[in-house]
Amino acid sequence: MSENITESKERKIELRELTDFDQEYFESLEGKNGWIALGNDFYQNPHYFTGLSTDQEKVGIIGVYDCGPDQNILHYVVDPKYRGQGLARKLADKIMADLDLPYVVLTIDLDNKASLRAAEKLPGVERVSDAEHEKEYHKAKFIYKRLENEK
Q1: How many C-beta atoms surround the C-beta of residue 125 within 10 A?
Q2: What is the pTM of this model?
Q3: What's the number of domains the chain is made of?
Q4: Beta bridge partner(s), residue 139
Q5: Euclidean distance between CA atoms 43 and 143, whole angstroms
Q6: Whole-number Å distance between alpha carbons of 37 and 113
Q7: What CA dihedral angle connects 77, 118, 52 and 95, to 10 degrees?
């Protein structure tokens, strides 16, 4: 592990704001062929942002989009330098607050055990996928509701 990543993980990062989506930063995290709902007519109402820390560092990408009957599907990528600090939840809470969304939909690959455990610990989360859905898509689906005191 490089010194920069070690230093970043030791220093607690606080999310300050969501700013305009930075395509170049997204590609630095996910590669040029990284999946995103932008520019695809199958996904409606996409809103993507770049998360900034209190030190003005880019910490990740977050977006929501609609797909058929599912609304507010969450898509995020936390910068590897800052993973393990709860930024995924902070990004989700911030986008719900900024866009005044009552909930977001989380879809998590069944092989991603760490993310599944983290999602199940969130206050206001409910697993809504059934065994058939999980077998077909190999993903669990959760509804993460905005807490009353965060409205």
Answers
A1: 18
A2: 0.85
A3: 1
A4: 109
A5: 19
A6: 24
A7: 90
Tokens of 105: 């939909």
Residue 94's SS3 state is helix
On the question of pLDDT at 2 being above 50, the answer is no
Rounded CA separation 74/143 (Å): 10
On the CB side of 17, CA atoms within 13 Å amount to 5
The confidence score (pLDDT) of residue 3 equals 44
Decide: 49 and 61 in contact? Cβ < 8 Å.
Answer: yes
Residue 75 vs residues 4, 51, 57, 88: alpha-carbon distances, Å: 26, 13, 20, 10
Q: Which residue segment(s) compose the domain that 105 sits in?
A: 3-150
Residue 131 Cα distances to 25, 48, 123, 124, angstroms: 36, 31, 23, 22
Q: What is the CATH number of the domain that holds 144?
A: 3.40.630.30
| Paired tokens of 118 | 């983290």
Mean pLDDT of 3-9: 48
Q: List the one residue out of 46, 55, 53, 54 whose CA is nearest residue 21.
A: 46
